Amino acid sequence: MKNIFKKILSFPMDWFLFTVLNENQRKFLSSLLSENVKEKIKRLISGKKLIERNKLQKIKYHLYNLGMEEKGLDALEEFYGNAKDPYIKRTAAWELVLWHANQYSEHGARKALTLIPAASLKQRNKDQLRRIAIIKAECLDLLNKGQEARETIDQMLTLDKHPDLFLAKANLENSIEKKLNWINKAFDYYNLSTISFSGKTVSVSYDDLSTEVLEPVENAETKVSIILPAYNAETGIQTAINSLLAQTWQNFELLVVDDCSPDDTVKVVREYAEKDSRIKLLNTPINSGPYVARNIALKEATGEFVTINDSDDWSHPQKIEIQVKHLLVNEHIIANTSEHARLTEEIKLYRRGTPGKYIFPNMSSIMFRRKPVIEKIGFWDSVRFAADGEFKRRLLKEFGVQRYVDLQTGPLSLPRQSVSSLTGSSAFGYNGFFKGVRKEYVESLEYYHNRADNLYYPYPQMKRLFPVPEPMWPLREEKPFGKRHFEIVIATDFRVYTMATLNEIKRRSNLHERIGLVQINQFNLDLDNKTNEAYRSLIDGEKIQMLVYGEKIKCLKLIIINPVVLEASQHYIPDIEPEEVYVVVNRLPVENGQRYYHFNNCKQHLTSYYNSNCIWVPYDSSIRNKLLEEYNEELNHISLSNYDWK
């Protein structure tokens, strides 16, 4: 009877959540519910569909966050092929569409287009249909099928006059006049003043962005501190400053913090400061990254509200006014953000990993009440990147989710998307998901947040409150020949706890000045996403450090525990040059009738990672004897030691 009752409840609830509600409505509903209530709802509707959705999320996590592209894509395609539930199959098809479309290649575009019919089959949600149309148009455009792409957007526009569709249409136009026409339809939609390109009609660039001069707001009594960190920004900072000087809310101070730029950034800013007393030039003592620069400015800020502007990003003249007025009217709100749309230097809108959306919340546009925020949570985390999300988490924890608002303003900022970052190929970059260093940062901060007595961060930060990988340190480590040096590096899947691995780390830590840990993943959908807390508690960022993708490391010994982590290829592994490599064989290739690894696969992947000879060491005599008895032929692929690890 209980299962029948759950089925009766789960179907309409499922239909309501994923067909009737759009994405923003689901997020808003989620923000209203406590974790306890959300967990009860999950238990109520738990069934095959929820299990399948969770499995799909796990596959995506391995594909994106863990960089296991070959195995992950195979698993996603298999999941799609085997899905029986129409909703689950449609969702899996959409995930395949996104994967292939986000490759931004002709092959990827063709693959995505073949799957779009399955992703849209019996889809009634208008938001999702719009996203599908935008992705379809992008793929057609990449294949030089511009007319078909325009027809796709035009057809959707007959059903949905949405600003994302206006921007999609702008991307399909060749002339700047037609582009502007569609871009300005998006601004009109939000009752914002329209933009132009300094009177030019050909060869326009991002730095030609402008709008008509708007009348300043009268009686703008509330002062805003605008913080603008800058590094090597001489060519773009004028665009940012000019857009801020054109704001309708004129009661502000602009605190520009130069981060030891070797170019003429300081000279450019000083010229502005000489003409406008609201502009103040500050500097970091040594190059430390934008968040240290922000903290220096925050100490100097005198405004009631504080907000941020990146050094080469254009802001709409109504941006400050809209966010200020919202805070003035809603005194209980502690912070808000506005929306943005990323624009390339070739005047094309860029999704940056968001699925079929060009306009989305701009975390860097945060405007907050200075005194209560500094009193409660202090300053930004002193890292080189990714601290916006950490700052937001502390705000939500300390003030409550209802006091932080992502305003649906339309694109009040058009952040510059440089050509060099379009692929999201940077090891430390963000393209819609956490990988490598950012994944490690999130896990470390969450571990700290869940245990800290308070979430106040001082500045200067004399000692880190929780460990972060070296690429995030404001003061980077000296690197002889471009590589950091460790005597010992231990690599395994730290999501899996074993006492033996924990003891190995402790033993090596006692013997050596410092050791590095490297996360290498098994493809296992049953494992937790995070590093096991027993290992996490040992990482102090000094004696025991987590090494991440994008780092270059030289070590005496690289010890890889558990061959299973070498079975599937993965991208997000640091570049390590070891003098000696050991693989500790602590389990057999086949256990309980299931094959976990193949020696030839493991050796192939090991060679691609480290290009070094390797000694395979059985964990104990029992493992050795079974290897020799049952896998003697396979052992020809490897060099087996004549001693055991234990």
From TrEMBL:
PANTHER family: GLYCOSYLTRANSFERASE, UDP-GLCNAC:BETAGAL BETA-1,3-N-ACETYLGLUCOSAMINYLTRANSFERASE-LIKE PROTEIN 1. One of its GO terms (molecular function) is hexosyltransferase activity. InterPro entries: Glyco_trans_2-like, Nucleotide-diphossugar_trans. The keyword Cytoplasm does not apply. The lineage of its organism: Bacteria, Bacillati, Bacillota, Bacilli, Bacillales. Keywords: Transferase. Residues 225-351 form the Glycosyltransferase 2-like domain. Belongs to the glycosyltransferase 2 family. It comes from the Bacteria. The keyword Aminoacyl-tRNA synthetase does not apply. This is Glycosyltransferase. It comes from Ornithinibacillus caprae.
